[in-house]
Amino acid sequence: MFTKTFASAAVLALLLPATQTMAASHSEEEKDRIDATDTLPDAKPGECYAKVIVPAEYETKTEQVLIKPESEKVEVKPAVFDEAEKSIIAKEGFTKVKVIPAKFREEFEEVEVAKASTEWVTSLGKKGIPASPALLAAAKTNSIDISSAAIGECFKEYYVPAKYEKTEKEVLVKEESEEIKVAAAQFEETEETVVVKQASKKKVYKPAEYETIEEKIEIEPAKAVWKKGDGPITKIDNSTGEIMCLIQVPAKYKIIKKTVLKTPSTIDLVEVPEEAKGVKVSKLVSDATIDKVKIPAEYKKITLTNKVSDASFTWRGAAVDGEGTYTGNQICLKEIPAQFTKVKKLVIDTPAAIEEEKVEPVAKLIKVSNVATEAEEIRTTIPAEYNTVEKRAKVSSERLEWRRVLCKTNMGPDINKRIQQALKDAGVYTGAVDGNVGRGTMSAVERFQKDNGLATGGLTIDTLEKLGVM
């Protein structure tokens, strides 16, 4: 044990006048702090004291918080029905009419498409070609009566072909016939109402409605903590002091989600009306009818070629010698036979007819349901749910007190090294163990005090004892 007590120059500045000046500069956040430093302690000669901050004390308590109130689960057992079958007429009987179409046979008819005519050609042989209009005009100019020329008669000169025009002629290709049209029987679609489920009473469960809310629970109240700050140095007996700032640490809260009842569950007794099913049925409105329609004959237009004017010639007869020089051109009147084509036409072989058939009505079985057992409800109670929350409550407030400290005048290199080594062993000091107590050593002291719940503000005797130095 040391026989003398020491005080550092850094903490000797925290005397009463400086404390009063600092306290006056803080806000209402200091109201929770207890200041027990109004008077200096009753010290013995050679003892030194420093004004230190004793931290507030807290204890942790657990509390049960309701997160979901007691509720009720309701199950509805539905009604039971018996099934039965019922026969109804789904479609009435009617008369079905079938049409047998008429049958036709093919016949061919030869139709003249071009009448027989005559034509002036350059030769009566196979190599003869039609004479040109210039040749025929030359023949007429030379007093040749072309209109009275005989078939097979030839003239020498130019040939002018005859003119033709085309006309149309209607030729019967399908005789007039008769078509039988049958109007099917007409039905009216109606619905027949059949009760398939009797009226009953139904219990409808409307579940309770819950909503989730968030509740903010204080688990640690707000507190004020003294920390060293920067500012002017107060001079007391040629010793320098340090400025202490009171920092407000806000309260700690925990957000808890709670399920609260919004609307309780209810059971409503609902009248369930009987269920009727509409069954489609076909009602005969009118029976089938027969209508005979005449189909007119069909004709086909064909093109006929008719001669408009004969060819004209200005040549002399081939057997008549005439004046002049033979040009080498010759025209002969040649007969062109008529042209025919075969046309196919359809002739009625068997006329159309009808057949009638009676269709029987159609019956249908449907299922119906009758109430056997009414619906019932089953209720089950669901217990409330709770959550355990930890709350930190303050036992004693933070306070300022005078505590004995180690005086700097008696702090030699040996004791300083022992303090530094003890701090290093505690894991709060990383500097050199050189016996020089500076800012690094004092910062480690304050860290050690906070870690062990000791008063901060100076190198107190309690701290030295905790370090095992004393």
From TrEMBL:
Residues 418-467 form the Peptidoglycan binding-like domain. Keywords: Signal. Transmembrane segments: none annotated. Residues 1-23 form the signal peptide. SUPFAM superfamilies: PGBD-like (SSF47090). It comes from the Bacteria. The keyword Signal applies. This is Putative peptidoglycan binding protein.
